[in-house]
TrEMBL record:
Homohexamer; trimer of homodimers. The active site is at 204 (proton donor). Phosphate binds at residues 20, 24, 43, 87-90. Keywords: Glycosyltransferase, Transferase. SUPFAM superfamilies: Purine and uridine phosphorylases. NCBIfam families: deoD, PRK05819.1. This is Purine nucleoside phosphorylase DeoD-type. One of its GO terms (biological process) is purine nucleoside catabolic process. Pfam families: PNP_UDP_1 (PF01048). It comes from Mameliella alba. The keyword Glycosyltransferase applies. PANTHER family: FI09636P-RELATED, URIDINE PHOSPHORYLASE.
Length: 234
């Protein structure tokens, strides 16, 4: 057990999918894993371990924002031996061509700050995805026939962002989408020699204000889970 994860040693698989929403962890475990059991419910941040095509997988909620994700990523890697961590999250499309339900696979993520910022002092560390996971996720997404974008994203500290000028610079520099966790996931994984990737589904589109309904979110999110699982074990 750790401070934030109640799982016993050995209860957590080496491959962990990490949605922000603990209810998405439960939904994904029920729909995509065999023999899934709940291995964590500390603070209601549910985690489940089961198998997918014979491979052991844990799906553990990360909470929203980089400080929360950082706690879970640190404990999963350092205390439970997780080696592959794939975020399965929602995001806001920032470019006109990044539409609702599209998949975004993050090569790298720009931030103002992460919980790791203090380590680097004057250095601007460039968080980046594991290339092997990334290329397998792209192949899996193509196999699903879903519109997929691969490139840079923005991990923001705020959901209700009043700095339109910052968003404008992101758009100008080709950033595909905004979410709130990937940069810290990539940074923590790099620090401890783990592999990380973020596979995201566009749940809303910033240029137009279009957004998926909750029903549409559930049906679209299935492809993201399958892409992440295929990338982990291809
Ligand atoms: O859908 P999840 O994985 O939570 O991801 C996105 O949704 C939350 C904001 O609503 C943030 O956590 C953001 O990164
Ligand atoms: O962080 C997020 C997630 C989804 N949509 C957004 O606009 N931001």
């Amino acid at each position: 057990m750790t401070i934030h994860i109640g799982a016993a040693p050995g209860d957590i698989a080496e491959t962990v999918l990490m949605p922000g929403d603990p209810r998405r962890a439960k939904w994904a475990a029920e729909n995509f894993l065999q023999n899934a059991t709940c291995i964590n419910d500390v603070r209601g941040m549910s985690g489940f371990t089961g198998t997918w095509q014979g491979h052991r997988v844990t799906i553990q909620g990360s909470g929203m924002g980089m400080p929360s994700l950082s706690i879970y990523a640190n404990e999963l890697i350092r205390d439970y031996g997780a080696k592959t961590l794939i975020r399965i999250g929602s995001c806001g499309g920032m470019q006109d061509h990044v539409g609702l339900r599209d998949i975004v696979i993050a090569m790298t993520s720009t931030t103002l700050s992460t919980p790791s910022r203090g380590f680097f002092r004057e250095l601007n560390f460039a968080p980046c995805a594991d290339f092997g996971l990334l290329e397998r996720a792209v192949a899996a997404a193509r196999g699903h026939g879903v519109t997929t974008h691969v490139g840079g994203i923005y991990s923001s500290d705020v959901f209700y962002d009043e700095r339109q000028d910052l968003n404008d610079q992101m758009v100008r520099h080709g950033i595909l989408a905004v979410e709130m966790e990937a940069a810290e996931l990539y940074t923590v994984a790099a620090r401890f020699g783990a592999r990380a990737l973020a596979v995201l589904t566009v749940s809303d589109h910033l240029p137009t204000g279009a957004a998926l309904s909750s029903d549409e979110r559930e049906s679209s999110f299935g492809e993201m889970v399958e892409i992440a699982l295929e990338a982990a074990f291809a």
